[in-house]
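Notes continue from the previous slide.

Worked example: a multi-chain complex. Inputs as given:
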Amino acid sequence: MADTGTATPRERYRAQIRAEIKEHAWQQIATTGASALSLNAIAKQMGMSGPALYRYYANRDELITELIRDAYRSLADTLRSTAAEAAEGSGEEGGAGLAGLAHAVRDWALRDPQRYLLIYGTPVPGYHAPDDITAISSQIMTLLLDAASAAPPRHPESPLDHHLAARRAWAGDHPAPPAVLHRALSFWTRIHGVLSLELAGHFAGMGFDPALLFAAELDDLLTC
Amino acid sequence: MADTGTATPRERYRAQIRAEIKEHAWQQIATTGASALSLNAIAKQMGMSGPALYRYYANRDELITELIRDAYRSLADTLRSTAAEAAEGSGEEGGAGLAGLAHAVRDWALRDPQRYLLIYGTPVPGYHAPDDITAISSQIMTLLLDAASAAPPRHPESPLDHHLAARRAWAGDHPAPPAVLHRALSFWTRIHGVLSLELAGHFAGMGFDPALLFAAELDDLLTC
DNA sequence: CAACGTTCGTGATAGCCTCTAACTAAATCT
DNA sequence: AGATTTAGTTAGAGGCTATCACGAACGTTG
């Protein structure tokens, strides 16, 4: 994560403490949620006094921003390697790429639900992510567009397709046709819809298996 | 909301103060999010000292729970009247009910995004809603099932349908066939997926019109 | 090696928060 | 009118974020 190879001992020590702080932060977020994250509590857990943490993070926001950045990076890495494996294994099996990405996202999210919700959950109204984070999120979008390009479009072009064709700046310089832009967006929203309701516990008392609903949603998305 | 007709003056005064507190709370939530809700700040806004509020709400959690309850009630009322209008206007126009509900949900959510996110956004890990709130949420589910029943199933039965047929307790005593249970769940997850990403601001920098994506998603949901 | 500047961690402190407790004043009930 | 319930106050405990001044450890450099 932080290259501890080439640096002064002081910088290596500093990087290690920062990493240790983040570990405690993740642990705390996993159990109490991001809104209850306490720098003070982390400091106590690490055996030092409260204000000491401010040597490593200027404030609570900066720590949370770095957690968000790491979460995005982790998701992007996961999806990148999933896409690479899919491209290697089967030559061009339309939709297998998207299915692989879908399951990779769900596995990643279930591994630490609060980490997913830190990215895609309720945002704090004032917060604006720095540019390098939005860059990672557009890397993720590119992966989705690549996978969506492999699956052939099945629908006649919708009014949305024309709209997207004109406003395709968010796709960067990706050469996907309008139908693929649409397909990637729809994939994103549908996966997020079923997954976020599961993570938020809205299926908890209902008795059915969320994995089956996810699979059905994915199947419908790919074959319909 | 609270029946101020039949009660002692003291009870009416109390109910009015509680309502006033909630109004300030909603205002605060709309601008700073639910996690930053401060009883102290509300008290100051109302011109009284901090601890005075604890005469009306035992603690912060109780206030937030009541806000969640009111939000659910408001959404349920909105959808109920939308469903009633749809049933009255056009006799049985398959899918018009679902489309009406979808737009009603979106309009309701856009009117106060934080109110939607209070219900369907990131939950506090420890929190468990009281029974009367889950009762309202199952009323909403019943409205969805009613509307979904009107639209004929277009798909062959999926493996999920069998699963849902066996575990239909969450549908209460609703006589919907398995395909309709599936349809209602899919409607919920898809509407929530596109809507929650919009409300969370994930489409903000992308340039396209979220309303068109919502409409396309709804159209695909109904016609496919 | 010794002096120096940098960095780390500390306690003290301000200001915010939730929430409790003791007390006063007002309204209601008998 | 007197007794009781209730509303609101201040004081304060304990938590939090964050700043500041200070001493102690560290690395570098003459």
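Summary box: Residues 10, 13-14, 17, 48-49, 51-52, 55 of chain B lie near DNA strand D (CB under 10 Å from a C1'). Chain B touches chain A through 53 residues (CB under 8 Å).
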